[in-house]
Amino acid sequence: MGYVEEQYDLYRENPDAVDSSLKEIFDQYGEPVWLSNSGQGVQSVPTQQNDQDMKKVTSAIKLVEAIRRYGHLEADIYPVGKEKNRKSELVHEETYGLSKMDLEAIPASWVWDHNLSSVRTAWDVVSTLRKQYAGTISFEYDHVNNDEERKWLQDHIEFGTYHLALTEEEKKQLLQQIVDVEGFENFLAKTFVAQKRFSIEGLEVMVPMLDKIVQNSFYDETEEILMGMAHRGRLSVLSHILGKPFDKIFSEFHSADKELIPSSGSRGITYGWTGDVKYHFGAERKAGEEKPSPTRITLAHNPSHLEFVNPVVEGSTRAAQDFRFQPGAPIQNKNKAISISIHGDAAFIGEGVVAETLNLSSLPAYQTGGTIHLIANNLVGFTTGQEQGRSTRYASDLAKGFEIPIIHVNADDPEACIAAVQLAYQYRKVFNKDILIDLVGYRRYGHNEMDEPRSTQPHLYQDIDNHQTVTSIYGGKLQEEGAIQEGSLNEMKEAVEKKLKDIYNAMKEDRPVDPEAEPVPDALMIDLDEIETAVPEEVLRKLNQDLLKRPEGFNGFKKVEKILERRAKVLDEGNKADWGAGEALAYASILKDGIPIRLTGQDTERGTFAHRHLVLHDVKTGEKYCPMHGLEDGKATFDINNSPLSEAAVLGFEYGYSVQAPKTLVLWEGQFGDFANAGQVLIDQFIASGRAKWGEKSNMVMLLPHGYEGQGPEHSSARLERFLTLAAENNLIVANVTSSAQYFHLIRRQAALVDSDSARPLVIMSPKSLLRNPSVASEAKQFSEGKFQPLMTQSGLPKTTKKAKRLVIGSGKIMVDIQETMEKSGEKYEDLHVARVEQIYPFPLNEIEKTLKGLPNVEEVVWVQEEPKNMGSWNFVKEPLFRLLNGEKELKYVGRCERSAPAVGDPNIHKTEQNRIVKEAIELSKGGDSK
Question: Hey, which residues does 44 pair with through a beta bridge?
Fold first, then answer.
């Protein structure tokens, strides 16, 4: 025992001074057990402990826990600024009535559950924890309620096992990475003076952090890494992580009178026909071909609406994880793809879509097995300081509400940053949950390089101007360690500058002659009427019967089952299929064709208006069953889920899913059409324009309940006019259909466009009260014959007639109201012809022209709508109709007057107005636009 004690004392002074076999024992087991039990070397606490002694022990325990909870308040995580040298009394022994001597008198095991040979007293514990929790890296995980996760985090942090013991060569490689980034940004600054680039300088270490995730993925089963980020540092990430050629980036900095032409190998990166600014584009790259598991890395395209790319990336990640080509529900592999979201510090806390997206992280239909979040924290948002930008201490505090662990790290300590990302990667791998790194740095220049930040943040930028770059700081550290020689850092910088100069000088200059946008792809100009969508009646009957199958012992809700049982006969002679039945047949037939379907939205499983019932609940067990999963001939998955009460995040998620899974029909349904208002950024910046800007294809469907039933301003209109304003270059299909067969053919036509260059989003003004209206129901032959009709003659009217003097055209529910009024009146209306525009964009002008040729005596054409005159379709259709009529016939408008709100709030006023519109359309004697 005496010999072992002597050797252990030597080991404590110098572990290499003892025999290797003893060193191995001491490394593994710590000090000899009899020393631990006796407290040798520790001042013993008296056996007859008095109250003061016990208070010191409990105070020491409080101090240890306080360092875990509040160490971040004193952590050295700010490279510059007023918080740089902050202190917190919460992590010092004096606050708890303790001294260093008091803590040295308490054995470590009394206040700490771990056993480290170097930690013998409570003072050792406190010193160790301060180092781990209040250094250049710090942690917040007290808000995580899962004991297993908390224990895992605590062990890794307090033992320091997440720290990578970098070799000398690895340290030099890390330095080279940040030199590459700094050199690239400096070259852009000198070569393209006063051009915006949203420099990464001050956060250069973000690039090696991302590279570490990529490198880790090569040894896991990860097939894809999907990233989203705003502008800051985007060009450096594109070049150093995505491998975008430098000459391609340089070519995008051309001036007005000349253009730099990249090499032929770099021109292959193509975007949409109208394009976008250079710091909005994404890219993709296949990396690690020689590794056990190569990884495809994708950086999503992102507009100036900074955080709205977050749900898009999540949707793309889920699509990459799901296997969809078998019957039933998709099978998810959470490790197949990883998502990384890089946020701005002001935007993360400021933009509501961030909270919406974080709320998706644990929901079965949306979770992606954990996202690694990284806040690129440059201490200021544009010109707005933190004290004006948030009500929380940290930009990351929002994540606490979702029990996401937070790592704060100083961007001037590259090794700590690599350790942070290593811990984040391992946590995500073990728990399949989100984790966040708050990378605290600064921005060396203004928000963009044309701003002058010293006018709005004078003190901060005085600090930054006097602050060394991370390359100088880390290079100096490695020089002190002897890892690099004096002058090596300058040589590395010069080599980077020479490489970039050589690339730039090898590029050709050209003086373009009035460059123009690319033309719209030919595939978007094809005639969709050529697509066959009819399904043989015997196939429909078999599918319809399969939809009535139930698992053995399933106890369905009787009222719902009666509704569904009635669907068994909708294809029989004399019966008709209502909207719900037509929709079910459309989905079933698409699954039979081998095309997966994903349908989500608010209350979508049942349907807001209780028409769908595609998820049934066992009244005894509560278990769910989807009739689409019982199709004998189904060849692909049907994934239907109620969404949280969110529009922006969910709409973005489904858009991202549709882009990543082009062979899948993705549908999103709003509870009411006006709910799309809250997702307008996604509609404007992604759904409507993503293809033109970035070449990003989506075939998703938006179902937006629309129709005037006296339910007030919010629940009447899906803002049809907004989609028509966005419609151009065949970027969308906008429809307002009025029969179940029309919906059947329209959805099947959209499914036929999956994975094709002709794909484009479909926006449907779907019905509410019409869901059960007999006028909307269709006979079996309307499903088994024909196809979608962009323009339909009203039921019961002849296709051609010489008697008609007036042609009434409109779309949606008002046209059904007109039909029902005409049928009830008993009049013949021989001087009237009525046609429904079922597809408003692309506008069926040719079909209207053919209709007019069959009505040779028509004197006036009336556009009728239930929306106010400044809303709905009128402002979109009046010009093409006026040109078509060429002054030979009058063009008139019938509908509500111009209004600031979409509808009245009083149902009685609504009814009066609706009756007036119908009457004027049928018996027009005055009014309308005719000029």
Answer: none
Per-residue pLDDT reduced to its tens digit, 326-380: 999 999 999 999 999 999 999 999 999 999 999 999 999 999 999 999 999 999 9
Which helix (DSSP H) or strand (DSSP E) does residue 640 occupy? strand 638-642
- SS3 readout for 177-215: HHHHHHHHHHHHHHHCCCCCCCCCCCCCCHHHHHHHHHH
Q: How far is the C-alpha of 87 from the C-alpha of 134, rounded, in Å? A: 10
Nearest to 212 by CA among 338, 332, 334, 78: 338
SS in 3 state form for 254-300? CCCCCEEECCCCCCCCCCCCCCCCCCCCCEEEEECCCCCCCEEEEEC
Q: Is the pLDDT of residue 48 over 80?
A: no
| pLDDT on residue 266 | 53
Instruction: Tell me what pLDDT residue 477 has.
Output: 96
Tokens 């080279």 locate to 176
Tokens 């499914």 belong to 751
User: Which residue type occupies 565?
Assistant: E
Q: Does an H or E element contain 476, and which? A: helix 470-481
Backbone angles phi, psi at 896, to 5 degrees: -75, 160
Residue-wise over 189-218: b if at least 16 C-beta within 10 A, else e?
beebeebbbbbbbbbbbbbbbbbbbbebbb
CB 565 within 8 A of CB 816: no
Neighbouring-strand partners of residue 703: 669, 764
> CA torsion sign, 26 to 27 to 31 to 32?
negative
Give phi and psi for 665, each to the nearest 5.
-90, 115
Q: At 246, give phi and psi (nearest 5°).
A: -60, -40
C-alpha to C-alpha distance for 625 and 613, rounded to whole angstroms: 10
Measured between alpha carbons, how far is 91 from 69 in angstroms, rounded to an integer? 9
Per-residue pLDDT at 685 exceeds 50: yes
Question: Are 171 and 430 within 8 A, CB to CB?
Answer: no
Q: How far is CA 819 from the centre of its chain?
A: 44
Which amino acid is it at 628?
A: M
pLDDT digits (tens, 9 = 90+) for 10-38: 888 888 888 888 888 887 777 776 665 55
